[in-house]
Write a structure and sequence with these properties.
The chain is an alpha/beta fold. The protein has one domain: Rossmann fold. It has 5 helices and 9 strands. The strands form 2 sheets. It has a 6-stranded parallel β-sheet with strand order 3-2-1-7-8-9, with helices on one face. A 3-stranded mixed β-sheet has the order 4-6-5. Helix 4 runs parallel beside helix 5. The longest helix has 13 residues. It is globular and about 45 Å long.
């Protein structure tokens, strides 16, 4: 059994630092960051247990529009109302089908998933649910961004119910001070 941390929205590497501080160094870390400015920073971390990917976490493999804004608030979600997104000039970034990525591991591996992807967590969680991939996840951390994307409460509840049905809850993740 492997211990795996999948870090979706690596930011400047603060999630990696926080995770290693709380869980130690015996996890294989797979960290995704598509913001070119942040990827440059996180890719310079030279830790043996860390693999960094310059990709957005999404529902398919390919390319997707990414909306740059404030350094820590850019998003795949054009409708996001915070972060000063430049919705008129999206940047094409590579994306990964996160369900397919997760399913490369064994069902008995211990997987911790962290989603801090500025509103895209709703689409990603639904994709993980529909592809029967949530059963691979042992623990889930993240941030909900419903208000930032003006998601109706009923839609938030519907997605959260998918987690509950899969015996998961999303524990709050805050790595700002790491």
């Amino acid at each position: 059994m492997k211990k795996i941390f999948i870090d979706c929205g690596a930011n400047d590497g603060s999630s990696i630092r926080k995770f290693n501080s709380e869980y130690g160094y015996d996890y294989h870390i797979h960290s995704f960051e598509c913001n070119p400015k942040l990827y440059d920073t996180v890719s310079k971390l030279k830790l043996e247990n860390v693999h960094v990917y310059n990709q957005a976490v999404w529902t398919y493999n390919g390319d997707i529009d990414f909306y740059m804004g404030d350094i820590h608030s850019s998003s795949l979600i054009k409708e996001k109302i915070t972060g000063n997104l430049d919705i008129n000039n999206p940047v094409k970034v590579p994306c990964v089908d996160i369900a397919q990525f997760i399913r490369q591991f064994h069902i008995d591996d211990y997987i911790i998933l962290k989603l801090d992807i500025e509103g895209a967590e709703y689409t990603v969680i639904e994709h993980l649910y529909k592809t029967d991939t949530l059963k691979y996840i042992n623990k889930l951390y993240g941030e909900w961004h419903a208000r930032k994307i003006k998601l109706p409460a009923s839609e938030h509840t519907r997605i959260n119910d998918m987690l509950l049905e899969s015996n998961l809850i999303m524990y709050n993740w805050d790595a700002v001070n790491y």
